[in-house]
Design goal:
This protein is of the alpha+beta class. Strands 1, 2, 3, 4 and 5 form a five-stranded antiparallel sheet that branches. α3 runs antiparallel to α4 and α3 crosses α5.
Length: 154
């Protein structure tokens, strides 16, 4: 799909799942912004399932329009916490956590876990380099050699 979704009813599915992507935007102290998300190599398997596309290996993140981004972000975070609580209750949190951080398709859980790590587990890195952290939701696309962007999520 070369277009992104912008209507809530297209983003939040009837079963409560999302056609969306969640990532962390880091504002650095030098004024630049960086995205903390899956690496291209982690996403390669997702892309390889598509036929007739020539991926450059580059990814495009496009936030949803401001009027819906906060709502979608909050719902995705809430969904991640529910899933993490279930994993704790089942006694498989630690193994699930390792899987969720590296497996595409769990971006909301990954982002919640990494936000916690950036805020609480490595404060020296946060204090030295990062001015602020923010969850962002929107579309994730694969940039094609012809310049088109194939949006897989959102």
């Amino acid at each position: 799909m070369n277009t992104t979704l912008t209507k809530i009813q297209d983003i939040i599915k009837r079963d409560g799942s999302f056609d969306a992507h969640l990532w962390i935007e880091m504002e650095m102290k030098d004024g630049t912004f960086e995205i903390n998300d899956y690496t291209p190599s982690q996403l390669e398997g997702v892309f390889r399932s598509k036929e007739n596309f020539a991926w450059t290996g580059e990814i495009n993140h496009k936030p949803f329009p401001r009027e819906i981004e906060e709502l979608i972000t909050n719902k995705m975070i809430k969904s991640a916490f529910k899933k993490l609580k279930l994993m704790i209750d089942l006694g498989i949190y630690e193994s699930f956590k390792k899987h969720a951080i590296t497996t595409p398709g769990m971006c909301n859980i990954r982002s919640v876990l990494l936000m916690d790590a950036l805020n609480n587990k490595c404060p020296e890195v946060f204090k030295d380099n990062i001015k602020s952290l923010k969850f962002r939701s929107g579309s994730l696309g694969f940039i094609q050699t012809n310049g088109d962007i194939f949006y897989e999520y959102g």
